[in-house]
Amino acid sequence: MKKILTYTFLCSLLVNTGCKDYLEQAVDQRTQLNSVEKVSELLTTAYPQADYATFTEAMSDLAMDKGTNNVETEEVNRNPYFFQDVIDRNQGSPNNYWFACYAAIAAANQALDAINKASNPDDYKAQKGEALVARAYSHFMLVTLFAKVYTPATAASDPGIPYVTEPERVVLAKYDRKTVAYVYEQIEKDLLEGLPLLNNNAYRSPKYHFNTAAANAFAARFYLFKKDYQKVIQHANQVFPGGNISSNLRPWVSVYSKLTAKEGLAIYTQATETANLLLVEAPSNWARNYATYRYGLATPTVNKYFRSNNVTGARWIFPLYTQGDNNWVILKFREHFVRESTNANIGFPYTIFPLFTAEEVLFNRAEANLELGNNEAARTDLNSYASTRIENYNATHHAITNAKLSSYYGTTNLKQGLLMALLDFKAAEFAQEGMRWFDILRHNILVQHTTVEGQSFTLGPNDPRRLLQLPQEVKLAGVAQNPR
C-alpha cells in the first residue's frame, strides 16, 4: 500500500500522477459525476479505508507485553505500546489512518460539489445526506485521535484538526487547525443536516453506508463525547424501532457460543448480523496479526475479564482461543485477499471492521442515563446486556444489585459503581477492536504498560502523548503538530 504519493496532507488520493494533472480531473478519473448512480459509486469511498484498532488496542490498558517468544512486532504494534510516535505510513499506523480519513473526506466533498452543480439536486437528497454524515464521521475520528478530548471549558482554545469542506483545487493548499470547539460545531452541522436526508432504500448494501441506524449511532457517540447526554439518549432510541436495543444485540449465548471457530469468524462481521450497523472493508493486516502481536491480549487480562466472575457473579460466555503460547484471540476478524488484477499473484489483505454496533449504542445510552441521574435506566440496560452474555442467565441470581456493586468495586456510590461496571462490560465486549482507547480518553484513565523485563511506562491523564502526532507531511500544508 505504498503507491500513494504525498504532496499535501490531503494528497493521499494522488496515485501515479502529477498534482497539476490530477487536480484538473474528477476524483474518480474514470467518469464524470453527472448522475445519481455515479455519485453513489463515489460515496463508497467516503469512508476511511484503514483500521485504527492496530494502534489504539496497543495503546490501551488491554495490551500487555507477551514476551520474546512472539515474533518481534512491527512498529505499528510496538511504538504505540510504548506511547511513541509511529513514523511510517504502513497499514495499521496512525499516519495511514489520518490520510485515509482525509481521502474519505475528499470523496465526500467531491460528491457534494457534484450535487451542488447538478441540474436536479432534489434527486440527490440521499447521496447528499450520506456525504455530509460521512464527512462529519471522518472529521470526528480525526479530532478524537489527534486533538484533545472535548472539554467545554477548554474546547474553544484547544487546537483541533483542519475541517475541509471544499474539493482540493490547488497544490500545497494551506489549512488551519482552528479549535476543537470549531471542529465539533462543523461536525454537528453536517450531521444534523445530513441525517434527515438519508434513505436506506438508496443503497444496495445498506450496512456499508451511513444508513439511518448507523447515523443515529454516530450521533449518540458524538454527543457522548460532547457531553450532551439528553441527545445521546434521543439518538440511541432512534437506532431501532421503539428504542428496543437489547433484542438486537449479538446473540452470544443462543447462537455464537454454539458455532465452530470457522462459523464464528464468518458471522461476526456479516452484514446480515443485526447488531452490525456500519461496516467498512479496509486494507489491513489486523485479522492476520491481532492474536500474535507481541503487545496485545495476554493471560492476565483474559483472566480478569473473561475467566473470572464479573460483578453479576458469573462469567461471560465469549469463546476464547489461543494461537500458540499466550496468544489469545476472540474470533471476530478474518482476512480476505484481494488480487491486484485478475491474473495477478500479488495483492493486499483486507479486513472488515464494524464501525458502529448495537452494543455500543446500548452502552452509550446507559452512560448518558448515568450522567443524567437515571441510574435505574442504566442498570436496566446493563442487565439486558448481561442476559445475552451469561449462559443460563437468571435475573434473580445475575442482576446487578447495589450490594454486588459495593462488594465488587468497593464503593457505595451507585453511579460510580454502575459506571465501573459499564466500563468493564465494554472492555470485554470490544476486546481486540481498539474501542477501549476511546473510554480511556473520555474518562482520563491512567494506562501503565510493563515489559517482561520489568520496565514500566505510564500514560497519565494529562500526558501530551494521549494525542497522536500529526504526520510529518502535514507541515507542508502549514499545520502545526502536537507538542511533545
Describe what you observe in this structure.
The protein has 484 residues and is mostly helical. 40% of the residues lie in helices and 8% in strands. The protein has 18 helices and nine strands. The protein has helices spanning 19-23, 36-43, 53-59, 75-81, 94-117, 125-146, 180-194, 212-226, 229-236, 261-268, 286-289, 299-305, 358-371, 375-387, 395-398, 402-409, 414-429, 436-442; strands at 64-65, 276-283, 295-296, 321-322, 328-329, 335-339, 347-357, 447-450, 456-459. A three-stranded antiparallel beta sheet has the order 2-7-6. A two-stranded antiparallel sheet has the order 1-3. The protein has a two-stranded antiparallel sheet with strand order 4-5. A hairpin with a 5-residue loop joins strand 4 (321-322) and strand 5. The protein starts with 18 loop residues before the first helix and ends in a 25-residue tail after the last strand.
- Separate helix tally: 18
Strand proportion: 5-15%
What level of helicity do the residues show? 25-40%
User: Uncertain regions: pLDDT < 50 for 5+ in a row?
Assistant: 1-30
Strand order of the largest sheet: 2-7-6
Number of strands: 9
CATH first level of the largest domain: which class?
Mainly Alpha
Q: In one word, what is the shape? A: globular
CATH fold field value of the largest domain: Serine Threonine Protein Phosphatase 5, Tetratricopeptide repeat
Tell me the count of domains: 2
Distance between the termini: 29 Å
- Rg, rounded, reads 22 Å
* Averaged pLDDT: 91
Pattern of helices and strands: HHHEHHHHHHHEHEHEEEEHHHHHHEE
Give the class from helix and strand content and strand pairing: mainly alpha
